[in-house]
Amino acid sequence: MATISEIHALATDPNPAAVPLESLRAWFADSDAEIQGAAFALVTNRPSFPWAPSLDVAMLDGLARTYFERRIRNDDGGRWAHSRYEAAWDLAGWVARYWFGDKPPPAKREAVVDWLGGLYTNGDAEVRRAVVDGTLEHLFERKDIKSAFKKWKNEPELGTAYAEANQWAAGGGSSPMVRAKPGQAKRKG
């Protein structure tokens, strides 16, 4: 298994050799949040990194969802790994850019809405707050994204999340998160 310093060396190497995609999968599956965070930083800060075979959008989507969900649920951020709210904020940018940008098929949008609904309903109070305050409030600044969540209004648990998140945008809240380049994972310290 790679160490954080080895992943960082790959991230900073101007001419890295191709790395097996299985290595990336293993880093994201590692129980160490810092290894996961370093792998996330590598894929977000070096989108053209040479993987063998190539990293496709579907795999990146799955890895990102897994990473964000772990970080929001566990809140064990560190130097490389996102804390709960860092993950929730970065997730808003990812959803806006990757899952709602460039007119994805409705099924893809629906899958993301359902995934966020599951993250909220299956979460404890802290996870729910992070999903609402860190992700949904900022997504709801964009009417096209907010409209994808309208089915939540009539669901008991999700209706609460929808109403709470809507207060931010309705009150004039605005942030660059849903317009900025997503994922710019940064090492702390």
Helices and strands in order, then pairings?
Elements: H1 4-12, E1 19-20, H2 21-29, H3 33-45, E2 51-52, H4 57-74, H5 84-99, H6 106-121, H7 125-139, H8 143-148, H9 156-170
Parallel strand pairs: 1-2
Characterization of this structure:
Helix 2 (21-29) crosses helix 3 (33-45), helix 3 (33-45) packs antiparallel against helix 4 and helix 5 (84-99) packs parallel to helix 7. The chain is an all-alpha fold and 189 residues long. The chain has a two-stranded parallel sheet with strand order 1-2. The protein has one domain (4-178). It contains nine helices and two strands, in the order H-E-H-H-E-H-H-H-H-H-H. The chain has helices at 4-12, 21-29, 33-45, 57-74, 84-99, 106-121, 125-139, 143-148, 156-170, and strands at residues 19-20, 51-52.
Name its key features.
mainly alpha; 9 helices; single chain; 2% strand; 2 strands; two-stranded parallel ribbon
- Computed over alpha carbons, the radius of gyration is 17 Å
Quote the beta fraction.
under 5%
User: Helical residue percent?
Assistant: 55-70%
Which structural class should the secondary elements be placed in? mainly alpha
Strand order of the largest sheet: 1-2
> pLDDT below 50 for ≥5 consecutive residues: which ranges?
180-189
Secondary-structure element order, N to C: HEHHEHHHHHH
Shape summary = elongated
According to DSSP, the number of beta strands is 2
The mean pLDDT is: 88
Report the sheet with the most strands, covering strand number, pairing sense and barrel closure.
2 strands, parallel
Figure out the total of helices: 9
Q: What's the number of domains?
A: 1
Distance between the termini: 24 Å
